[in-house]
Design goal:
This protein has helices spanning 28-47, 79-100, 103-107, 110-126, 129-138, 142-167, 173-182, 187-207, 209-215, 218-225, 237-240, 261-264, 285-296, 309-312, 322-341, 406-409, and strands at residues 51-52, 55-56, 58-61, 66-69, 72-75, 232-235, 304-307, 348-354, 361-362, 367-378, 385-392, 397-399, 403-405, 414-421, 427-435, 440-448. The model is unreliable at 1-14 (pLDDT under 50). Among the domains are: 28-224, no CATH class; 348-448, Immunoglobulin-like, CATH 2.60.40.10. It is elongated. Strands 8, 9, 10, 12 and 14 form a five-stranded antiparallel β-sheet that branches. A four-stranded antiparallel β-sheet has the order 13-11-15-16. Strand 1 and strand 2 form a beta hairpin. The termini are far apart. Helix 4 (110-126) packs antiparallel against helix 6, helix 4 (110-126) crosses helix 8 and helix 6 crosses helix 8. It contains 16 helices and 16 strands. By secondary structure, the protein is an alpha+beta fold.
Amino acid sequence: MEKIPVVQQHTPAFVKDGKFHVRLVEGRFQNLRRLTTWPLIALFFGLVWVQVDGMPWLLFSFEQRRILLFGTSLSWHDLPLLAGLMIAGACLLFFMAVAWGRVWCGFACPQSIWTWLFIRIEDMTEGRANQRAKQDKKGLTGALFLRRSAKHLLWCLLSLATAITFTGYFIPVRDIMDGVLTLQLSPAIGGWLLIMAGLTYANAGLVREKICLHACPYSRFQGVMFDSDTRTVSYDTNRGEPRAHKRAQDGSSGDCVDCGLCVQVCPTGIDIRNGLQAACIDCGACIDACDEVMHKLNKPRGLIRFASEMELTHKASRFLRPRLLGYGTAIVCTTVAVLYGFTSTTSLLVEIRRDRNALFIQLDEDTFCNTYGVKVESFADNEQLINVSIAGDRPYELFGPAQLDMQETGSTWLPYRVCASGIDSPRSELTFNFNGREVAASKQTTFLARPSKPVPRD
């Protein structure tokens, strides 16, 4: 059998001036896509409003220097845990790509999800794809102007809602909404919202498939991850060719009637019958369109289907293979490591630095003092008061706040002085102890002095 060619057809044949209208279709894969995307959309827009004990359930707060993650408060020193989650997610993405192609792009990628939302709005305001194509040929009329104005207004509102929600994961969304409703947003936040809304409007409304073709790196290196057993959206040439208008010499023809619906419903405008292409996002829209045609013609479905190269050549296809097992092992190992890391997160962060202007202060012949800067950050919501004490091999005396109120001190540096008498060593160990109701931390530092007696040398 002749191998299916890999082509780079970025614009379908029926397109003029680089613009085409995506035809919406119904079917099992589109229903599956909705079952996947609508919960994700609901989580994105709803999770930012959820609060537990008056605190957001998910917030990456730069102001508080903490991460609120589903009831757990993390410090910025726990960011490697989030990096581990991202690594596990990347391995899962690669695992899915090796097994089923670009199903992430077709069923869960934010670019695809928002593009479908914008297409739905366009279909609702301007009519179906064939109506929009006819309107483009007739030119702009008064009624069309009103419908397009409504479309762009809805696009702008959805873009603004997306920008506000996304920003709400870094700044409390209630504060943002108060600023929006009272027109008292800071220039920085207001500018950021406009930029985010503009990017959403451009990516999902104007650029669309060009992001998948030119900006997304995943479409470029997907070919490295595919193998002959990867099940991706494929056209069965053995069954479909020759097409109905290209009958063979004996008068026979394949099941493909060359209706072109598979091209019209494709969000990236490719013809899957030309073989595997970088622009294909495996959304399954062409499968649903083709299955509907096959059903009307009383022919078996599956002319276009998820199939591997081995299946198309009627050979046995393997699911478990070394590359897939490797990605699966990486997912398990990374997930276990991250879960273990969550058991030892930082609840109390302490930093101590010595005064660089003077090594020590000598009060009299036998008494020396050292000055320290201390910063304490509590990442436990129920810990407001922290007691400070010192311990060491000398009778040290601490001068400074013995109890810290975390709501007042925050992450500020506080001055402390430690004094001691009868020092016989130029350098000794000193430990600062910090204790709350359920958290505790210790930090070791040094105490410098000039001993009253010379230190013997070995």
